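queue> pop job 88
queue> type: inverse folding (structure -> sequence)
queue> payload:
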């Protein structure tokens, strides 16, 4: 059972790393994201107190951050137009290439229709706010093609990152609490029911 011990050691190391940058992130939260759950130096997260906004004299920083998040979301993933495309490599058979291009155009239209109907664009604003302060994530779990695409914002308070030998981020984990009876619902193919 070396894997659980190795995983526990990696999580413990990632929590120690998180405790190093938590004070800086929390200070930024106090000033520009006062309602965001604080990054804890322990394994549990802390809720901001009502008095933590005392040092803010006006809402300027919060408004600027909101504008930044909106602009970044619009720049990288605009709602009104596709923001990525797939290309077909020319293999010499123009008829086959054109058939593939038509299929990809159809696929992209459907994909962006599903993205527009999802929660992605609401989640993206929270993501960009958090990126301005530290880091964050967006979790888009795999779903069947006939289901809507779910998107979940993951704040820094729920992220654990493993450093590689060179000090760069390696594995990234979403740390959250779940009740034991929720596991069969979350992991339907699990052997433990």
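queue> result:
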């Amino acid at each position: 059972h070396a894997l659980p011990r190795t995983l526990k050691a990696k999580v413990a190391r990632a929590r120690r790393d998180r405790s190093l940058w938590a004070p800086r992130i929390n200070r930024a939260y106090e000033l520009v994201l006062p309602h965001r759950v604080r990054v804890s130096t322990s394994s549990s997260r802390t809720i901001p107190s009502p008095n933590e906004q005392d040092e803010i004299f006006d809402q300027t920083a919060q408004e600027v951050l909101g504008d930044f998040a909106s602009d970044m979301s619009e720049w990288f993933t605009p709602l009104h137009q596709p923001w990525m495309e797939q290309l077909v490599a020319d293999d010499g058979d123009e008829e086959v290439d054109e058939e593939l291009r038509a299929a990809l155009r159809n696929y992209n239209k459907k994909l962006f229709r599903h993205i527009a109907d999802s929660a992605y664009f609401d989640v993206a604003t929270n993501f960009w706010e958090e990126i301005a302060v530290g880091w964050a994530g967006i979790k888009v779990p795999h779903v069947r093609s006939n289901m809507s695409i779910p998107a979940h914002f993951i704040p820094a308070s729920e992220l654990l990152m493993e450093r590689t030998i060179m000090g760069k981020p390696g594995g990234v984990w979403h740390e959250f609490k779940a009740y034991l009876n929720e596991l069969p619902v979350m992991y339907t193919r699990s052997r433990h029911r």
